[in-house]
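Intended use. Records like the one below are meant for learning the mapping from a protein sequence to its folded structure. Do not use them to infer anything beyond what is encoded.
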Amino acid sequence: MSPSFPSRKAAAALLAVAVLSGCASTATSRQAQPEDPWEGFNRQVFAFNDTLDRYALKPAAQGYRFVTPDPVETGVGNFFANLGELRTTLNSLLQGKPGNAGIATGRFLINSTVGVLGLFDVASHMELVGREEDFGQTLAVWGVGEGPYVVLPLLGPSTVRDTAGLPVDSYTYPLTYVEEDKVRLSLRALDVIDTRAGLLDQERLIRGDRYSFIRDSWLQRRRFEVNDGELGEDPFASDEFDFDDADFDDAFAE
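Structure written out for the chain above:
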């Protein structure tokens, strides 16, 4: 059985790059950024992801949005987000954050039962809300350096450290253990399309060079997550952007 990367994070990364890469190929010369020494390569991958989005993912998401009632779409997103609570529980424990691990465990149990397999986010209505954690964040807590920024084919924005954490995140995501290939792949496709549909309304927000914007925004948001908000207020929590921690993908949509 082949591993699958954690659905919400992986899909968000893919969509962030795919949606924002339209201007990459027309960029003029810019000052080199120390955190992005591989910019030439990254922009090429950025353009590849954009082509994938333009001709496949975005049309599928538009069709999904057209035929899916809003309550159903919300329920689908809740279902996949709920699966990620198990990853948060494990990584919270590895980081020495038992309180956040308890919150994630409680959220999973409540939403999986009272919330009908996670379709309803009952835990949030009970004000049981914590921070999402993954193995990239765990590596940061363990003292591993961030490394250069890198754009991954299909998966999108990352760093060397976060890329190293992806295999572990794969094995802490429940869909990895669905034995039936057709069911597993269908669920993952639904997850990606549902996440992309959630970005359709945000595509107008980006201005200027999209590659630079997504890189700088992603790095800022990622450092905010790694430091548990100690860098200050969440830069994407304003009314203008209308983002929240449970849907980090929206921070990088057009």
